[in-house]
Design goal:
The structure holds two protein chains of two kinds. Chain A is an alpha+beta fold. Chain A is built from three helices and five strands, in the order E-H-H-H-E-E-E-E. Chain A has a five-stranded antiparallel β-sheet with strand order 1-3-4-5-2, with helices on one face. In chain A, strand 4 and strand 5 (115-123) form a beta hairpin. The longest helix of chain A is centred in the middle third of the chain and has 16 residues, at 51-66. The radius of gyration of chain A is 16 Å and the shape is elongated. Chain B starts with 14 loop residues before the first strand and ends with a helix. The longest helix of chain B has 11 residues, at 21-31. By secondary structure, chain B is of the alpha+beta class. Classes of the chains: A alpha+beta, B alpha+beta.
């Protein structure tokens, strides 16, 4: 398998409805993601996108380009926050290949340039 | 605040969580995943899958049916205000499909203070087994901003 040098994905603006759907789907009902008042109490001006939603989008970046089931390992540090309404842009850059697996460096930023997450992924051919 | 270190090593007894297609479909809607192989058995078979494979980070979503991170923080007497998700890792050893019953267990691996106690880091390992083998493992690092929490 030939691994692409770079793959990207853009989320489009993350809406309050999407955050509510993700809260229901993920079981993470922390009001920080849903309630502007709770977000203010935690020191933020608006509700924040769930880190796990950003990570799910990062995983989708790989599945979409390299096939369902390709992700063997995914590691992300949440280096900043994305606010509701912001678009998130994901870039994965091929670092090396070994034993049929590809190692990618991963970074995502908001449309405004703020860091959201950084990490690494190991991907392989989708299972038969 | 100082988090009670006696809980380091606390582990939950495994419980079994069935994976159902509706939940996977809802998760896919929320993350903008449009590939029906994840929830439509026919689409999955047509694409060569044994059954509908779940997206890579979906397993985090079923932890609540076992013991959510919010529940673990409650056990540690840490209020949710001031808590953020700092880091997450998944290792996938075998695909997990709709219809599988996943045995989930979680363990508080570490609690560390940084920046003179301004921040505490709680590290939780989770094991996901299908049948008699581990299908995936994850590590979650939660940061507690003690100034916000206090």
């Amino acid at each position: 398998m030939t691994w692409p040098a770079e793959i990207t994905l853009s989320s489009g603006p993350v809406t309050p409805v999407q955050l509510a759907l993700f809260a229901a789907a993920s079981g993470d009902h922390n009001p920080l993601h849903l309630d502007p008042e709770a977000a203010r109490r935690a020191g933020f001006d608006t509700p924040l996108v769930h880190g796990m939603l950003s990570m799910a989008l990062a995983a989708r970046l790989f599945s979409q380009h390299l096939g369902v089931g390709c992700v063997r390992s995914l590691h992300t540090r949440f280096t900043g926050v994305a606010r509701v309404g912001e678009s998130i842009h994901f870039t994965a850059t091929l670092e090396r290949e070994a034993d049929g697996l590809a190692h990618y460096a991963l970074r995502s930023v908001t449309a405004g340039g703020g860091d959201v997450l950084a990490g690494t992924a190991v991907v392989g051919p989708p299972p038969p | 605040m100082t988090i009670d270190r006696s809980r380091i090593g606390f582990a939950t007894a495994p419980t079994r969580v069935p994976i159902d297609a509706r939940r996977v479909k809802l998760f896919c809607q929320a993350i903008g995943e449009t590939d029906a192989v994840h929830w439509d058995a026919e689409a999955a078979r047509a694409a060569g899958h044994a059954a509908c494979p779940v997206p890579p980070t979906f397993l985090k979503a079923i932890e609540g049916e076992h013991c959510s991170s919010a529940t673990l923080l409650q056990l540690l007497q840490v209020p949710l205000t001031g808590v953020l998700h700092a880091e997450q890792r998944f290792d996938h050893l075998a695909p997990v499909h709709v219809g599988d019953v996943v045995s989930v267990s979680r363990r508080i691996d570490r609690i560390d203070d940084k920046k003179n106690g301004a921040l505490s880091f709680v590290v939780v390992d989770t094991d996901y087994r299908v049948g008699d083998r581990t299908a995936a493992r994850s590590t979650q690092t939660i940061v507690v901003r003690n100034a916000v929490t206090a």
